[in-house]
Write a structure and sequence with these properties.
- Chain A: Tetramer of two alpha and two beta subunits.
- Chain A: Keywords: Aminoacyl-tRNA synthetase, ATP-binding, Cytoplasm, Ligase, Magnesium, Metal-binding, Nucleotide-binding, Protein biosynthesis.
- Chain A: It holds the Pfam family Phe_tRNA-synt_N.
- The complex is a heterodimer of chains A (358) and B (800).
- In chain A, 43% of the residues are buried.
- Chain A is an alpha+beta fold and 358 residues long.
- Chain A has twelve helices and eleven strands.
- In chain A, strand 3 and strand 4 form a beta hairpin.
- By secondary structure, chain B is an alpha+beta fold.
- Chain B folds into six domains: 68 residues, Phenylalanyl-tRNA Synthetase, Chain B, domain 1, CATH 3.30.56.10; 111 residues, OB fold (Dihydrolipoamide Acetyltransferase, E2P); 193 residues, Phenylalanyl-trna Synthetase, Chain B, domain 3 (Phenylalanyl-tRNA Synthetase, Chain B, domain 3, 3-Layer(bba) Sandwich); 69 residues, Phenylalanyl-tRNA Synthetase, Chain B, domain 1 (2-Layer Sandwich); 197 residues, Bira Bifunctional Protein, Domain 2 (BirA Bifunctional Protein, domain 2), CATH 3.30.930; 88 residues, Alpha-Beta Plaits (2-Layer Sandwich), CATH 3.30.70.
- In chain B, the strands form twelve sheets. In chain B, strands 29-32-33-37-36-35-34 form a seven-stranded mixed sheet, sandwiched between helices. A five-stranded antiparallel sheet of chain B has the order 6-5-4-7-12, with no helix packed on it. A five-stranded mixed sheet of chain B has the order 15-18-21-22-23.
- The chains are: A alpha+beta (358), B alpha+beta (800).
Chain lengths: 358, 800
């Protein structure tokens, strides 16, 4: 009896002192293996008389369980310690910089074009396009700008060589050419926006020989200046992501619209930053008006039946306004630092549901 | 167009603050661009009394003055020779800004003597070039009074933008008339009553044109005034002209400038003694020259309208007078010209000769055809008043154009076009005030267009007139009704591909650039060249003269600029047009890109490698896939355009006639010519050539996957070096199209351990059974087929 207690004490002490799994295994074999100390005692039960066996057997079983559990616990502890040691050795310097990954950028012009498209899609507009190289008719004559009209002098037009018949192609000075192409090729109603490249022979701090415009055109039988104001008000709020934008329509003049207007929005000049939507100053952002009946006639539409409105706006300019980009010329310089700073990651796809900008 | 408040008030009776005036001008379409209030700018400059001026102890030319400013007595060191005890001058205290010298005054010591503020000259105040001494004010001037007010500079100058249709507002009177029409003040009457002639003009006038229509000069009114005395004009006139930035010259010249700006009516005054015989308007003769008032000699073309005497041209009608017949101090007799010129003729001649003048500016926009004789009366009155003399009868040639026109307005159009209800009575009042003499007949308002509004010729113009006076602000914005509640896509398939191409390339690590559509023709020549028809006649500079035939040259030039900034690793792309003719079909949409330098910078976890042709091949394939093109079935063959390296480039095509893309290393000769460091690899994807999917079926084909174990087997073949890998892959795939689901080349070797002229290509195939697990024999059978197929197709052999 005392042997059992003594053995238990000894074994538990030995288990407690074991420091590696191998030693623990040999200890397990020496105690619980076939010829182990506990097993040998269990084997002794057979020679005992039933009464004695009845007393000793439970004790031995208990010893077996206790020793077995102790070994399992020791094993688990040793495993945990070994893993801890391994993990400690595997430590890395998490402050090392990550591997380089290339992430490109979308140019602000593309991004803003996508934003504008998204907004006007919501109002039922389609995107229309036309050629950069066009003729005098589409760029001027059809837009009610006859050859000697002073407005032609406001457009510093790039011309291509004169042909034998005296005509010459030009680089379109505005996207309004596509108004004409659309009205000539399809039947009304029309509701289009026309983003694209435009060209004027002008280069200084705030002008580049190539720039981007977006034109809008609505032609049907009923649309009027109230709708024009409504469309542009919605656009401004959505584009500048503001609840309210205070606007002002001023009478102006364009040969292709009558009545004509220019639209200003309220803004504040704070240092070199412009805050749009409120303030004491006005900022001109676009020209617009009701399509001149002469333009409709040039496109074969009867002004007694059809009417509508049009507007034109600089994409580069509103991109600069919205995103605080200071210099227009840098748009076309392809400086990596500029593209990275002002560009947009490709996953920033503007949507109305998900938000136009982050 | 500039004017001062006091000038406006000579024509318009009103009582309203400056801001209200400014708002009204803008709201009726005369946009205020700026208001200069000199009184505010010069507020610090006040009259002061020099109590004492004594010699500076250490400087011969300086005086130390005690100056009484009205509020204190300060010490000022002054260098002006006229600074003396008892005088009254103009003083600016420390802390004020001196516009003429662009300096802020602060207390200082001049040669050891304290000086606070400054006694100023006219030049220092920025009001003239006078700098001989400080300004002297009359002795009885009140100390502390504002100099600006005393000098008549307290008159705000307003600058407005004039749109090309508003020729009527190119004179102060016209601006007053438009303001009055909008209900802002009352227009004062203009005195144009005829002045009786005292004698018959010794100079006659005639229009001398044959077979020209319309007449370049359709009316000429003249008047002789004898015995005038020309000299400086009076202060009121000089002040007006200076306020709007004009330089007073002499009374006779100042009168013409004044009438130009006051009544939008250019005039000319000849020194009558320098005129030989009668005056005529005619076309220039071939080779005729004119020395104009700007000192330049102009060669005239035969479509230029000149005003001439018996001998020679005296001036360019409606544009600029001539030097020989101009007025001077000694002029005693004058001949005043008020004529009407054709806008197109003026614009053409002005543009050809490059002359910008106030007269041209007004005549090419159209001068009031009914205001020729009245203008002569106004001018005569001014000449008599300022220069004296005796007027002749008026001589007239021509009748002027027939300008009268009637335009009718359907009352409903204001609401239909403008979207605003304007009561008919208001429409009539507005038109009446604007001078349109409206008459209501049924549903229509008939109008007679006033002579000063030649731009108005249609119903829409009348709607604009009513709306601008009624106020654009009174038009309520209303939403545009939409056909559908949920928006439909705004872009078509082609436009959508452009958008996708951009985002796909950016997602591949490339930066989107937007470069000019034009480039130096020498660069165009390196990329296939352009026909003469797309070389600009008037480029912004000689190196932006040709339309680009490829997107690559501008991207390569951009790489060069970035290299110069110290960035040698870069990937740039652009999606845009290239141009091959001057017709719409000569413009094609391309996605182009370049990569150069290392794939990534040096790094602890391993360095990058140099970009090579396979990188841009991957870009091109990825792009075809992104835009929904047939990336799987595309053929990759050699034969890229000659701006690519002949041995390291290729094209992707759907057959020899449909080229979808080109890619590869840029030819070193091209880079050398562009002076950009290489190597650079690039690609061009011709988006318009990529076929659009035939249907927009959103359903995908069903997915078939197998639960049976797939098997991989490796092979290495020894083939001639010029056997393309593509041929081997095709042979492998072709040997068992059903079973072989994947072929990948994992090694290509050429070198010592293989025969000369041979290479080893190692590949791995994946066999995927659909209905059972493959047995070793079955696998072996496929392997045998693979080997046979490759050997047959390439003449190579399996390496053991």
């Amino acid at each position: 009896m005392q042997d059992i207690e003594k053995l238990e004490q000894e074994l538990l002490e030995q288990i407690g002192n074991v420091t590696d799994l191998e030693a623990l295994e040999s200890l397990r074999i020496s105690a619980l293996g076939k010829k182990g100390s506990v097993s040998l005692m269990m084997r002794g039960l057979g020679q005992m008389d039933p009464a004695e066996r009845q007393i000793v057997a439970p004790k031995l079983n208990k010893l077996k369980t206790i020793v077995g559990d102790a070994i399992d616990n020791a094993k688990a502890a040793l495993h945990a310690a070994a893993l801890d040691a391994k993990l400690a050795e595997e430590r890395i310097d998490i402050t090392l910089p990550v591997r380089p990954e290339a992430m490109g950028r979308i140019h602000p012009i593309s991004q803003v074009m996508d934003e504008i498209t998204e907004i006007f899609a919501g109002m039922g507009f389609d995107v229309a396009e036309g050629p950069d190289i066009d003729d005098d008719f589409h760029n001027f004559t059809a837009l009610n700008i006859p050859p000697e009209h002073p407005a032609r002098q406001m457009h510093d037009t790039f011309y291509l060589p004169e042909k034998e018949d005296g005509s010459r192609q030009l680089l379109r000075t505005h996207t309004s050419t596509v108004q004409i192409r659309t009205m000539q090729s399809k039947k009304p109603p029309h509701r289009i926006i026309v983003p694209g490249r435009t060209f004027r022979c002008d280069s200084d701090q705030t002008h580049t020989p190539m720039f981007h415009q977006i034109e809008g055109l609505v032609i049907d039988k009923t649309s009027h200046m109230g709708h024009l104001k409504g469309v542009l008000a919605e656009f401004c709020k959505a584009f500048f992501e503001l609840d309210e934008v205070t606007m002002r329509f001023r009478p102006s003049y364009f040969p292709f619209t009558e009545p004509s207007a220019e639209m200003d929005i309220r803004c504040t000049f704070a240092g070199d930053h412009i805050k749009v939507g409120e303030g004491e100053d006005w900022l001109e952002i676009l020209g617009c008006g009701m399509v001149n009946p002469r333009v409709l006639e040039h496109c074969g539409l009867d002004p007694a039946e059809y009417q509508g409105f049009a507007w034109g706006m600089g994409i580069d300019r509103i991109a600069m306004l919205k995103y605080g980009i200071p210099d227009l010329r840098a748009f076309f310089d392809s400086d990596l630092r500029w593209l990275k700073h002002y560009g947009f990651v490709p996953l920033d796809v503007p949507t109305l549901g998900g938000g136009l900008s982050r | 167009m500039k004017f001062t408040i006091s000038w406006l008030k000579e024509h318009l009776d009103y009582d309203a603050p400056l801001e209200a005036l400014s708002d009204r001008l803008t709201s009726i379409g005369l946009e205020v661009e700026g208001i200069t209030d000199r009184a505010k700018e010069l507020a610090a400059f006040r009259v002061a009394h020099v109590v004492e001026a004594v010699q500076h102890p250490d400087a011969d030319r300086l005086r130390v003055c005690k100056v009484d400013t009205g509020s204190e007595v300060v010490q000022v060191v002054c260098g002006a020779p006229n600074a003396r005890t008892g005088m009254k001058g103009v003083f600016a205290p420390s802390g004020s800004y001196v516009p003429g010298t662009d300096l802020w005054l602060k207390p200082s010591k001049i040669r050891g003597v304290e000086s606070n503020g400054m006694l100023v000259s006219e030049r220092e105040m920025g009001i003239s070039d006078e700098h001989d001494g400080i300004i002297e004010m009359p002795e009885d001037t009140e100390i502390g009074a504002s100099f600006a007010a005393l000098a008549g500079l307290d008159d705000p100058v307003i600058e407005i933008a004039i749109t090309p249709n508003h020729q009527d507002a190119l004179g102060v009177y016209g601006i007053a008339r438009d303001l009055a029409a909008s209900g802002f003040g009352t227009l004062k009457p203009l005195d144009t009553s005829p002045i009786a002639g005292k004698f018959k003009s010794p100079i006659g006038v005639k229009l001398n044109f044959e077979k020209v229509s319309p007449l370049p000069c359709s009316k000429f009114v003249g008047r002789y005034v004898r015995g005038v005395k020309n000299g400086p004009s009076p202060k009121w006139l000089q002040d007006k002209l200076r306020a709007i930035g004009l330089r007073p010259i002499s009374a006779l010249v100042d009168i013409t400038n004044f009438v130009t700006y006051d009544l939008a009516r250019p005039l000319h005054v000849f020194d009558a003694d320098k005129v030989s015989g009668d005056i005529q308007a005619r076309l220039a003769t071939a080779g005729e020259k004119l020395l104009a008032l700007d000192g330049e000699e102009y060669d005239l073309e035969s479509d230029a309208c000149v005003i001439a005497d018996d001998k020679a041209a005296l001036g360019l009608g409606g544009i600029m007078g001539g030097e020989t017949s101009g007025c001077s101090e000694t002029t005693r007799n004058v001949f005043i010209e008020a004529a009407l010129f054709d806008p197109i003729s003026i614009a053409t001649t002005g543009r050809k000769l490059g002359i910008e003048s106030d007269a041209r500016y007004r005549f090419e926009r159209g001068v009031d055809p009914a205001f020729v004789e009245p203008a002569m009366e106004v001018a005569t009155r001014l000449v008599l008043e300022l220069c004296g003399g005796e007027p002749s009868d008026v001589v007239v040639a021509g009748e002027g154009p027939k300008w009268q026109k009637s335009v009718s307005l359907r009352k409903s159009r204001v609401k239909e076009l403008g979207g605003v209800n304007v009561p008919v009575a208001d429409m009539i009042t507005i038109l009446d005030r604007l001078g349109f003499a409206p008459k209501e007949t049924g549903d229509v308002i008939e109008t007679e267009v006033p002579s000063w509004r030649m731009d108005v010729d249609g119903e829409a113009d009348l709607v604009e007139e009513i709306l601008r006076i009624h106020g654009y602000d009174n038009i309520d914005p209303v939403p545009l009704p939409t056909e559908t509640v949920v928006a439909k896509p705004a872009v078509n398939a082609r436009q959508r591909r452009v958008r996708i191409a951009k985002r796909a390339l950016a997602a591949r690590g490339m930066m989107e650039a937007v470069t000019w559509s034009f480039l130096p023709r020498a660069h165009a020549d390196l990329f296939g060249g352009v026909p003469d028809e797309i070389v600009l006649v008037n480029p912004i500079s000689a190196d932006l003269d040709a339309m680009r035939p490829s997107l690559l040259p501008n991207l390569i030039a951009a790489a060069g600029r970035n290299h110069a900034r110290g960035f040698s690793d870069l990937s740039l792309f652009e999606v845009g047009s290239e141009y091959h003719s001057d017709q719409p079909d000569g413009q094609i949409m391309v996605a182009g890109g370049i990569r150069t330098g290392q794939t990534s910078s040096r790094h602890w976890a391993g360095n990058g490698r140099k970009f090579d042709a396979y990188d841009v091949k991957a870009d091109a394939l990825a792009m075809l896939e992104a835009v929904g093109g047939p990336a799987e079935s595309v053929q990759v063959v050699t034969g890229a355009p000659d701006w690519y390296h002949p041995g390291r480039s290729g094209v992707m095509q759907l057959g020899p006639k449909n080229r979808l893309a080109a890619f590869g290393e840029i030819h070193p000769r091209v880079l050398e010519a562009m002076k950009v460091k290489g190597p650079i690899v690039g690609f061009e994807i011709y988006l318009d050539n990529v076929p659009l999917p035939k249907s927009r079926d959103t359903a995908r084909p069903p997915l078939t996957i197998s639960d049976y174990q797939a098997v991989e087997r490796d092979f290495a073949f020894e083939v001639d070096v010029d056997i393309p890998a593509e041929a081997i892959i095709r042979a492998v795939r072709g040997s068992d199209k059903k079973m072989i689901t994947d072929v990948s080349i994992f090694d290509v070797y050429q070198g010592d351990r293989i025969a000369a002229g041979k290479k080893s290509v190692a590949l791995s195939i994946r066999l995927q059974p659909m209905d059972r697990t493959l047995t070793e024999d079955e696998i072996e059978a496929v392997a045998t087929k693979v080997i046979g197929s490759v050997e047959k197709a390439t003449g190579g052999s399996l390496r053991h």
